[in-house]
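Lecture 7 notes: from sequence to structure.
We start with the chain below.
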Amino acid sequence: MIGLAILALADTNAAISLQPGTYTNEEYVYFERDGGREPPPWIGVEIGRDGSVRRIDPFGGPVASAVSVKPNADTPHAVTIETGGKTHILRRARGATCWAALRKDKPKPDGGEDWHFERNLKLHDQGGRRALGGADTGVPAIVLRMRNVVWPAGNTNRPSLVLYIHSIEQPDRALAYAWADPGAARIGLNLRWVQASCTIEGREDS
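Predicted structure tokens for the same chain:
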């Protein structure tokens, strides 16, 4: 991407030990808001195999903002970043490839249901989002979102892989969702007017 700044790492040694992938603070933001506290801004970064770092928004788009990134001392599946004078821990995401089908407002000429399909949608399980439909597609605009939920200590709920459907107008309130075991290879949902399925990268063959 022309003009996209490569963000500076804290130091050369940190760049060597950082695992490539996508990292976000989705879970921390969610549970701070859920607990009635003021959440920090959503932060995501992509680390390349060459150690390059770029900041991203929840839809994977670039964010032109410098940030320093270090490995997290407690786990290899997280990184620590410093931005705005504060330190944040970001969890590493697993990628997913999805498809979705949305029923069109108007039926086919023969009266049968007509569907809008979107394939090879790339998501990740740390709050990755994709906008679907809208414009001239003949279907309402929605957002597909994925999380790998790990509940705070003391909560008796079990960790879950969750797939959400959101409206564009309410990005933080789900219209519907489905959940599965975090070790599942696939997750899907069917609401009659919308269907979606996601395959976790590396899981189906494992």
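Points to note: The two ends are 34 Å apart (CA to CA). Helices lie at 12-17, 26-34.
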